[in-house]
Protein backbone atom coordinates (compact mmCIF):
# COMPACT_ATOMS: atom_id res chain seq x y z
CA UNK A 1 0.00 0.00 0.00
CA UNK A 2 1.47 3.28 -1.06
CA UNK A 3 0.53 5.23 2.05
CA UNK A 4 2.20 2.61 4.22
CA UNK A 5 5.57 4.04 3.23
CA UNK A 6 6.29 7.74 3.21
CA UNK A 7 9.59 9.44 2.52
CA UNK A 8 10.21 12.99 3.68
CA UNK A 9 12.88 14.44 1.45
CA UNK A 10 14.03 17.03 -1.04
CA UNK A 11 15.24 16.44 -4.58
CA UNK A 12 18.74 17.98 -4.20
CA UNK A 13 19.71 15.92 -1.17
CA UNK A 14 22.19 13.10 -1.88
CA UNK A 15 21.05 11.39 1.31
CA UNK A 16 17.45 11.36 0.10
CA UNK A 17 18.62 10.07 -3.30
CA UNK A 18 20.26 7.11 -1.56
CA UNK A 19 17.00 6.10 0.08
CA UNK A 20 15.01 6.52 -3.12
CA UNK A 21 17.44 4.24 -4.96
CA UNK A 22 17.06 1.58 -2.27
CA UNK A 23 13.27 1.79 -2.36
CA UNK A 24 13.33 1.60 -6.16
CA UNK A 25 15.57 -1.47 -6.10
CA UNK A 26 13.05 -3.21 -3.88
CA UNK A 27 10.08 -1.98 -5.96
CA UNK A 28 8.55 -0.39 -2.89
CA UNK A 29 5.72 2.01 -3.57
CA UNK A 30 5.97 5.10 -1.44
CA UNK A 31 4.61 8.59 -1.04
CA UNK A 32 7.29 11.22 -1.50
CA UNK A 33 6.68 14.30 0.62
CA UNK A 34 8.90 17.08 -0.63
CA UNK A 35 10.20 19.28 2.19
CA UNK A 36 10.82 22.93 1.61
CA UNK A 37 14.19 23.70 3.11
CA UNK A 38 13.22 27.20 4.24
CA UNK A 39 10.38 25.93 6.41
CA UNK A 40 10.38 22.48 7.93
CA UNK A 41 7.05 20.68 8.14
CA UNK A 42 5.46 19.67 11.42
CA UNK A 43 5.72 16.06 10.33
CA UNK A 44 9.50 16.41 9.88
CA UNK A 45 10.00 18.11 13.25
CA UNK A 46 7.88 15.45 14.95
CA UNK A 47 9.49 12.50 13.16
CA UNK A 48 13.10 13.57 13.57
CA UNK A 49 13.21 15.82 16.62
CA UNK A 50 16.93 15.25 17.23
CA UNK A 51 18.37 16.29 13.88
CA UNK A 52 15.31 17.80 12.12
CA UNK A 53 16.76 16.67 8.82
CA UNK A 54 15.78 14.70 5.77
CA UNK A 55 15.54 11.93 4.74
CA UNK A 56 12.98 10.48 7.12
CA UNK A 57 11.30 7.21 6.22
CA UNK A 58 7.93 6.60 7.82
CA UNK A 59 6.85 2.97 7.61
CA UNK A 60 3.52 2.09 9.19
CA UNK A 61 3.70 5.38 11.07
CA UNK A 62 7.11 4.61 12.57
CA UNK A 63 9.81 7.12 11.64
CA UNK A 64 13.44 6.40 10.85
CA UNK A 65 16.24 8.80 9.99
CA UNK A 66 19.90 8.68 8.82
CA UNK A 67 20.15 7.59 5.18
CA UNK A 68 22.35 4.49 5.48
CA UNK A 69 20.43 3.27 8.51
CA UNK A 70 17.24 3.63 6.47
CA UNK A 71 18.87 1.79 3.53
CA UNK A 72 19.80 -1.14 5.80
CA UNK A 73 16.27 -1.16 7.22
CA UNK A 74 14.78 -1.27 3.72
CA UNK A 75 17.15 -4.17 2.97
CA UNK A 76 16.01 -6.02 6.12
CA UNK A 77 12.29 -5.51 5.60
CA UNK A 78 12.03 -6.05 1.84
CA UNK A 79 14.38 -8.97 1.84
CA UNK A 80 12.96 -11.23 -0.86
CA UNK A 81 15.00 -9.81 -3.71
CA UNK A 82 17.82 -7.40 -4.65
CA UNK A 83 19.93 -7.67 -1.51
CA UNK A 84 21.76 -4.43 -0.79
CA UNK A 85 24.24 -5.75 1.76
CA UNK A 86 26.23 -8.86 0.85
CA UNK A 87 25.42 -12.07 2.70
CA UNK A 88 28.92 -12.84 4.00
CA UNK A 89 29.64 -11.11 7.36
CA UNK A 90 33.17 -10.10 6.36
CA UNK A 91 31.99 -8.57 3.07
CA UNK A 92 29.27 -6.77 5.04
CA UNK A 93 31.89 -5.38 7.42
CA UNK A 94 33.98 -4.10 4.50
CA UNK A 95 30.90 -2.43 2.99
CA UNK A 96 30.00 -0.81 6.32
CA UNK A 97 33.58 0.32 6.91
CA UNK A 98 33.82 2.11 3.58
CA UNK A 99 30.30 3.53 3.88
CA UNK A 100 31.38 5.08 7.20
CA UNK A 101 34.55 6.37 5.53
CA UNK A 102 32.50 8.00 2.77
CA UNK A 103 30.18 9.71 5.27
CA UNK A 104 32.68 10.64 7.96
CA UNK A 105 35.80 11.51 5.95
CA UNK A 106 35.30 11.72 2.20
CA UNK A 107 32.05 13.64 1.85
CA UNK A 108 32.79 16.26 4.54
CA UNK A 109 36.09 16.99 2.74
CA UNK A 110 34.31 17.42 -0.58
CA UNK A 111 31.65 19.61 0.97
CA UNK A 112 34.22 21.88 2.58
CA UNK A 113 35.79 22.77 -0.77
CA UNK A 114 32.96 25.25 -1.34
CA UNK A 115 33.67 27.32 1.76
CA UNK A 116 37.44 26.94 1.69
CA UNK A 117 39.49 30.09 2.20
CA UNK A 118 42.08 30.65 -0.47
CA UNK A 119 43.31 28.75 -3.46
CA UNK A 120 45.91 26.73 -1.54
CA UNK A 121 43.31 25.38 0.87
CA UNK A 122 40.96 24.52 -2.02
CA UNK A 123 43.75 22.71 -3.83
CA UNK A 124 44.63 20.75 -0.72
CA UNK A 125 41.02 19.67 -0.17
CA UNK A 126 40.60 18.73 -3.82
CA UNK A 127 43.71 16.55 -3.59
CA UNK A 128 42.32 14.87 -0.50
CA UNK A 129 39.02 14.13 -2.25
CA UNK A 130 40.90 12.65 -5.21
CA UNK A 131 43.05 10.56 -2.90
CA UNK A 132 39.88 9.24 -1.26
CA UNK A 133 38.44 8.35 -4.65
CA UNK A 134 41.68 6.52 -5.39
CA UNK A 135 41.08 4.38 -2.31
CA UNK A 136 37.47 3.83 -3.35
CA UNK A 137 38.72 2.77 -6.81
CA UNK A 138 40.77 -0.01 -5.16
CA UNK A 139 37.77 -1.01 -3.07
CA UNK A 140 35.69 -1.18 -6.25
CA UNK A 141 38.16 -3.52 -7.92
CA UNK A 142 38.07 -5.89 -4.93
CA UNK A 143 34.37 -5.67 -4.27
CA UNK A 144 32.99 -5.87 -7.82
CA UNK A 145 34.96 -9.02 -8.67
CA UNK A 146 34.95 -8.05 -12.32
CA UNK A 147 31.29 -7.09 -12.43
CA UNK A 148 29.73 -3.67 -12.92
CA UNK A 149 28.98 -2.52 -9.39
CA UNK A 150 30.40 -2.63 -5.87
CA UNK A 151 27.59 -5.10 -5.24
CA UNK A 152 28.60 -7.24 -8.23
CA UNK A 153 25.83 -7.63 -10.80
CA UNK A 154 23.44 -5.64 -8.66
CA UNK A 155 23.71 -2.39 -6.78
CA UNK A 156 25.06 -2.78 -3.28
CA UNK A 157 25.51 -0.63 -0.20
CA UNK A 158 28.63 1.12 -1.48
CA UNK A 159 27.12 1.83 -4.89
CA UNK A 160 24.27 3.59 -3.10
CA UNK A 161 26.50 5.26 -0.50
CA UNK A 162 28.92 6.76 -3.03
CA UNK A 163 26.59 6.99 -6.01
CA UNK A 164 24.16 9.25 -4.16
CA UNK A 165 26.87 11.93 -4.22
CA UNK A 166 27.56 11.83 -7.96
CA UNK A 167 25.35 14.83 -8.73
CA UNK A 168 27.17 16.99 -6.19
CA UNK A 169 30.50 15.59 -7.28
CA UNK A 170 29.81 16.87 -10.79
CA UNK A 171 28.79 20.26 -9.41
CA UNK A 172 32.08 20.44 -7.49
CA UNK A 173 34.03 19.54 -10.63
CA UNK A 174 32.32 22.22 -12.68
CA UNK A 175 32.51 24.90 -9.99
CA UNK A 176 36.23 24.36 -9.51
CA UNK A 177 37.26 23.47 -13.05
CA UNK A 178 38.70 20.11 -11.97
CA UNK A 179 38.10 16.46 -12.62
CA UNK A 180 37.68 14.48 -9.42
CA UNK A 181 36.89 11.22 -11.20
CA UNK A 182 39.29 10.87 -14.12
CA UNK A 183 40.81 8.34 -16.45
CA UNK A 184 44.23 8.65 -14.88
CA UNK A 185 43.34 8.27 -11.21
CA UNK A 186 40.06 6.35 -11.20
CA UNK A 187 39.36 4.70 -14.58
CA UNK A 188 37.06 2.03 -13.13
CA UNK A 189 35.00 4.55 -11.20
CA UNK A 190 34.59 6.73 -14.30
CA UNK A 191 32.89 3.80 -16.02
CA UNK A 192 31.03 2.84 -12.86
CA UNK A 193 29.60 6.34 -12.48
CA UNK A 194 28.05 6.20 -15.91
CA UNK A 195 26.66 2.71 -15.36
CA UNK A 196 25.27 3.80 -12.01
CA UNK A 197 23.49 6.85 -13.34
CA UNK A 198 21.92 4.80 -16.14
CA UNK A 199 20.62 2.12 -13.78
CA UNK A 200 16.84 1.83 -13.67
CA UNK A 201 16.70 2.37 -9.93
CA UNK A 202 18.80 5.55 -10.22
CA UNK A 203 18.08 7.38 -13.44
CA UNK A 204 14.80 8.99 -12.42
CA UNK A 205 15.93 10.08 -8.98
CA UNK A 206 19.47 11.32 -9.63
CA UNK A 207 19.16 15.11 -9.67
CA UNK A 208 20.12 16.84 -12.90
CA UNK A 209 23.54 18.52 -12.64
CA UNK A 210 22.33 21.76 -14.23
CA UNK A 211 19.47 22.03 -11.73
CA UNK A 212 21.87 21.35 -8.87
CA UNK A 213 24.16 24.14 -10.01
CA UNK A 214 21.23 26.57 -10.02
CA UNK A 215 20.16 25.29 -6.62
CA UNK A 216 23.70 25.64 -5.25
CA UNK A 217 23.65 29.32 -6.15
CA UNK A 218 20.72 29.82 -3.79
CA UNK A 219 22.54 28.31 -0.82
CA UNK A 220 24.25 30.51 1.75
CA UNK A 221 28.02 29.93 1.82
CA UNK B 1 35.56 -20.87 15.20
CA UNK B 2 38.81 -19.54 13.83
CA UNK B 3 41.56 -17.41 15.30
CA UNK B 4 40.52 -14.15 16.90
CA UNK B 5 42.88 -11.29 17.74
CA UNK B 6 42.27 -7.77 18.93
CA UNK B 7 44.77 -4.95 18.50
CA UNK B 8 43.90 -2.56 21.30
CA UNK B 9 44.99 -0.28 24.12
CA UNK B 10 43.59 -0.70 27.64
CA UNK B 11 42.45 2.89 28.24
CA UNK B 12 40.54 3.14 24.96
CA UNK B 13 36.77 2.74 25.27
CA UNK B 14 36.16 1.76 21.64
CA UNK B 15 38.51 -1.15 22.37
CA UNK B 16 36.62 -2.00 25.57
CA UNK B 17 33.42 -2.27 23.51
CA UNK B 18 34.95 -5.10 21.51
CA UNK B 19 36.18 -6.96 24.59
CA UNK B 20 32.74 -6.75 26.21
CA UNK B 21 31.08 -8.10 23.06
CA UNK B 22 33.53 -10.98 22.73
CA UNK B 23 33.13 -11.92 26.38
CA UNK B 24 29.34 -11.83 26.18
CA UNK B 25 29.59 -14.21 23.21
CA UNK B 26 32.11 -16.43 24.99
CA UNK B 27 34.67 -15.97 22.22
CA UNK B 28 38.32 -16.46 23.11
CA UNK B 29 40.67 -13.86 21.75
CA UNK B 30 44.30 -12.87 21.80
CA UNK B 31 44.85 -9.31 23.06
CA UNK B 32 47.62 -7.54 21.17
CA UNK B 33 48.48 -4.48 23.20
CA UNK B 34 49.38 -1.56 20.96
CA UNK B 35 51.74 1.29 21.79
CA UNK B 36 50.12 4.24 20.03
CA UNK B 37 53.31 6.28 20.27
CA UNK B 38 55.09 3.60 18.30
CA UNK B 39 52.55 1.91 16.03
CA UNK B 40 53.18 -1.68 15.06
CA UNK B 41 53.54 -2.89 11.49
CA UNK B 42 50.51 -5.09 12.04
CA UNK B 43 48.33 -2.13 12.99
CA UNK B 44 49.49 -0.02 10.06
CA UNK B 45 48.97 -2.92 7.67
CA UNK B 46 45.57 -3.84 9.07
CA UNK B 47 44.14 -0.33 9.29
CA UNK B 48 46.05 1.79 6.77
CA UNK B 49 43.16 4.24 6.36
CA UNK B 50 42.80 5.37 9.99
CA UNK B 51 45.82 3.75 11.72
CA UNK B 52 43.74 3.46 14.90
CA UNK B 53 42.65 0.90 17.45
CA UNK B 54 40.63 -1.25 17.83
CA UNK B 55 41.43 -3.54 14.94
CA UNK B 56 39.77 -6.93 14.97
CA UNK B 57 41.38 -9.87 13.20
CA UNK B 58 39.45 -13.04 12.43
CA UNK B 59 41.66 -15.63 10.75
CA UNK B 60 44.00 -12.74 9.95
CA UNK B 61 41.31 -10.77 8.10
CA UNK B 62 41.21 -7.28 9.62
CA UNK B 63 38.20 -5.12 10.44
CA UNK B 64 38.38 -1.60 11.86
CA UNK B 65 35.87 0.85 13.41
CA UNK B 66 34.24 -0.35 16.63
CA UNK B 67 30.61 -0.19 15.44
CA UNK B 68 31.47 -2.16 12.29
CA UNK B 69 33.34 -4.74 14.38
CA UNK B 70 30.41 -5.11 16.79
CA UNK B 71 28.02 -5.95 13.94
CA UNK B 72 30.50 -8.44 12.50
CA UNK B 73 30.85 -10.16 15.87
CA UNK B 74 27.08 -10.31 16.27
CA UNK B 75 26.61 -11.80 12.80
CA UNK B 76 29.43 -14.34 13.14
CA UNK B 77 28.76 -15.68 16.66
CA UNK B 78 25.03 -16.11 17.03
CA UNK B 79 24.75 -16.86 20.77
CA UNK B 80 23.57 -14.04 23.01
CA UNK B 81 22.50 -11.68 20.23
CA UNK B 82 23.57 -8.08 20.74
CA UNK B 83 21.42 -6.28 18.19
CA UNK B 84 17.63 -6.55 18.35
CA UNK B 85 16.09 -9.08 15.96
CA UNK B 86 13.25 -6.81 14.89
CA UNK B 87 14.33 -4.67 11.88
CA UNK B 88 12.83 -1.44 13.23
CA UNK B 89 14.38 -1.86 16.67
CA UNK B 90 17.66 -2.79 15.02
CA UNK B 91 17.53 0.41 12.98
CA UNK B 92 16.76 2.42 16.12
CA UNK B 93 19.73 0.85 17.92
CA UNK B 94 22.00 1.85 15.02
CA UNK B 95 20.53 5.35 15.09
CA UNK B 96 21.30 5.79 18.78
CA UNK B 97 24.77 4.32 18.39
CA UNK B 98 25.53 6.89 15.71
CA UNK B 99 24.05 9.62 17.90
CA UNK B 100 26.23 8.54 20.82
CA UNK B 101 29.43 8.54 18.78
CA UNK B 102 28.69 11.73 16.85
CA UNK B 103 26.91 13.91 19.37
CA UNK B 104 27.74 12.58 22.83
CA UNK B 105 31.36 11.50 22.42
CA UNK B 106 32.41 14.47 20.31
CA UNK B 107 30.22 16.90 22.24
CA UNK B 108 31.50 15.82 25.63
CA UNK B 109 35.09 15.71 24.42
CA UNK B 110 34.61 19.22 23.03
CA UNK B 111 33.28 20.43 26.38
CA UNK B 112 36.23 18.80 28.17
CA UNK B 113 38.80 20.53 26.00
CA UNK B 114 37.07 23.92 25.73
CA UNK B 115 38.04 26.77 27.98
CA UNK B 116 36.54 30.11 28.92
CA UNK B 117 33.41 31.25 27.10
CA UNK B 118 33.35 28.35 24.68
CA UNK B 119 33.17 25.89 27.52
CA UNK B 120 29.71 26.93 28.71
CA UNK B 121 28.28 26.63 25.23
CA UNK B 122 29.94 23.24 24.64
CA UNK B 123 28.70 22.04 28.00
CA UNK B 124 25.11 23.01 27.17
CA UNK B 125 25.33 21.09 23.92
CA UNK B 126 26.62 18.04 25.78
CA UNK B 127 23.80 18.26 28.32
CA UNK B 128 21.25 18.47 25.51
CA UNK B 129 22.60 15.22 24.03
CA UNK B 130 22.46 13.46 27.37
CA UNK B 131 18.84 14.59 27.79
CA UNK B 132 17.90 12.70 24.63
CA UNK B 133 19.57 9.56 25.95
CA UNK B 134 17.83 9.93 29.29
CA UNK B 135 14.47 9.73 27.51
CA UNK B 136 15.62 6.66 25.62
CA UNK B 137 16.66 4.69 28.74
CA UNK B 138 13.69 5.75 30.90
CA UNK B 139 11.77 2.74 32.19
CA UNK B 140 14.40 0.25 31.04
CA UNK B 141 17.10 -1.53 32.98
CA UNK B 142 19.41 -1.62 29.97
CA UNK B 143 19.12 -0.09 26.51
CA UNK B 144 18.82 -3.71 25.36
CA UNK B 145 15.95 -4.42 27.77
CA UNK B 146 16.53 -7.05 30.41
CA UNK B 147 20.04 -7.87 29.22
CA UNK B 148 22.98 -5.86 27.96
CA UNK B 149 22.83 -5.34 24.21
CA UNK B 150 24.60 -3.50 21.43
CA UNK B 151 23.53 -0.05 22.55
CA UNK B 152 24.61 -0.64 26.15
CA UNK B 153 28.03 -1.64 24.83
CA UNK B 154 28.20 1.49 22.67
CA UNK B 155 27.07 3.77 25.52
CA UNK B 156 29.18 1.89 28.07
CA UNK B 157 31.96 4.49 28.11
CA UNK B 158 29.58 6.73 30.02
CA UNK B 159 29.77 4.41 32.99
CA UNK B 160 33.51 4.91 33.56
CA UNK B 161 35.29 7.13 31.04
CA UNK B 162 32.76 9.95 31.33
CA UNK B 163 33.49 10.67 34.98
CA UNK B 164 37.17 10.99 34.06
CA UNK B 165 36.31 13.50 31.34
CA UNK B 166 34.24 15.39 33.89
CA UNK B 167 37.24 15.47 36.24
CA UNK B 168 39.78 16.43 33.58
CA UNK B 169 37.37 18.95 32.05
CA UNK B 170 36.36 20.35 35.43
CA UNK B 171 32.63 20.05 34.86
CA UNK B 172 29.64 18.01 35.97
CA UNK B 173 27.46 16.36 33.38
CA UNK B 174 25.92 13.01 34.32
CA UNK B 175 24.39 13.61 37.73
CA UNK B 176 21.57 11.69 39.40
CA UNK B 177 19.57 14.90 39.78
CA UNK B 178 19.74 15.85 36.15
CA UNK B 179 19.54 12.40 34.53
CA UNK B 180 18.26 9.87 37.07
CA UNK B 181 17.61 7.02 34.61
CA UNK B 182 20.88 7.38 32.74
CA UNK B 183 22.76 7.69 36.02
CA UNK B 184 21.16 4.52 37.35
CA UNK B 185 21.87 2.69 34.09
CA UNK B 186 25.54 3.64 34.28
CA UNK B 187 25.79 2.20 37.78
CA UNK B 188 24.05 -1.03 36.74
CA UNK B 189 26.17 -1.39 33.65
CA UNK B 190 29.55 -1.14 35.33
CA UNK B 191 28.54 -3.75 37.89
CA UNK B 192 27.28 -6.24 35.33
CA UNK B 193 29.31 -9.11 34.00
CA UNK B 194 31.42 -9.11 31.84
CA UNK B 195 31.93 -5.36 32.13
CA UNK B 196 32.89 -5.36 35.80
CA UNK B 197 35.88 -7.59 35.14
CA UNK B 198 36.89 -5.73 32.03
CA UNK B 199 37.42 -2.05 32.73
CA UNK B 200 40.75 -0.26 32.82
CA UNK B 201 42.01 1.27 36.10
CA UNK B 202 40.75 4.82 36.49
CA UNK B 203 44.32 6.18 36.76
CA UNK B 204 45.20 4.93 33.29
CA UNK B 205 42.11 6.62 31.84
CA UNK B 206 42.97 9.88 33.67
CA UNK B 207 46.47 9.75 32.19
CA UNK B 208 45.11 8.93 28.71
CA UNK B 209 42.62 11.79 28.65
CA UNK B 210 44.83 14.33 30.41
CA UNK B 211 47.48 13.80 27.78
CA UNK B 212 44.92 14.17 24.99
CA UNK B 213 43.33 17.30 26.46
CA UNK B 214 46.67 19.04 27.01
CA UNK B 215 47.74 18.13 23.50
CA UNK B 216 44.59 19.54 21.92
CA UNK B 217 44.69 22.70 24.05
CA UNK B 218 48.34 23.35 23.23
CA UNK B 219 47.59 22.89 19.50
CA UNK B 220 44.76 25.40 19.78
CA UNK B 221 46.97 27.85 21.67
CA UNK B 222 49.74 27.61 19.10
CA UNK B 223 47.39 28.25 16.17
CA UNK B 224 45.93 31.39 17.71
CA UNK B 225 48.07 34.41 16.91
UniProtKB/TrEMBL annotation, chain A:
GO MF term list: glutathione transferase activity
Enzyme Commission number(s) of this protein: 2.5.1.18
GO BP, one annotated term: toxin catabolic process
Pfam families given in the database record: GST_C, GST_N
Family per similarity comment: Belongs to the GST superfamily. Tau family.
PANTHER family linked to this entry: GLUTATHIONE S-TRANSFERASE U17, GLUTATHIONE S-TRANSFERASE, GST, SUPERFAMILY, GST DOMAIN CONTAINING
Name the UniProt record assigns to this protein: glutathione transferase
Annotated source species: Flemingia macrophylla
Automatic annotation (TrEMBL), chain B:
Family the UniProt entry places it in: Belongs to the GST superfamily.
Catalyzed reactions: RX + glutathione = an S-substituted glutathione + a halide anion + H(+)
PROSITE patterns assigned to the protein according to its UniProt record, in alphabetical order: GST_CTER, GST_NTER
Domain GST C-terminal: from-to ranges: 86-208
InterPro entries: Glutathione-S-Trfase_C-like, Glutathione-S-Trfase_C_sf, Glutathione_S-Trfase, Glutathione_S-Trfase_N, GST_C, GST_C_Tau, Omega/Tau-like, Thioredoxin-like_sf
Acyltransferase as UniProt keyword: no
First-level EC class: transferase
Gene3D superfamilies linked: 1.20.1050.10, Glutaredoxin (3.40.30.10)
Keyword Transferase: yes
Listed name of the protein: glutathione transferase
Entry EC number(s): 2.5.1.18
A molecular-function term among this protein's GO annotations: glutathione transferase activity
Keywords tagged on the record: Transferase
GST N-terminal domain: residues covered: 2-81
Amino acid sequence: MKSEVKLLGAWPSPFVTRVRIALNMKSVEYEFLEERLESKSQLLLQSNPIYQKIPVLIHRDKPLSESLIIVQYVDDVWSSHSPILPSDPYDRAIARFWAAYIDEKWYPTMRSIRGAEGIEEKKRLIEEVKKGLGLLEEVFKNSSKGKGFYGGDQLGMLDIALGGFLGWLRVTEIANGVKLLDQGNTPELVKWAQRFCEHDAVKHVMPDTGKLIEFAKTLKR
Amino acid sequence: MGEVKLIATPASFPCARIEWALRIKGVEYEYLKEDLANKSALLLQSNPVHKKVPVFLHNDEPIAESLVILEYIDETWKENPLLPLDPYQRAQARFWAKFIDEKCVLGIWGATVAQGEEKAKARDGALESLAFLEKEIEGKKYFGGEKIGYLDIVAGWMSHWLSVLEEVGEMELLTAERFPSLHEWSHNFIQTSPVKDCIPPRESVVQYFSFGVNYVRSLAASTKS
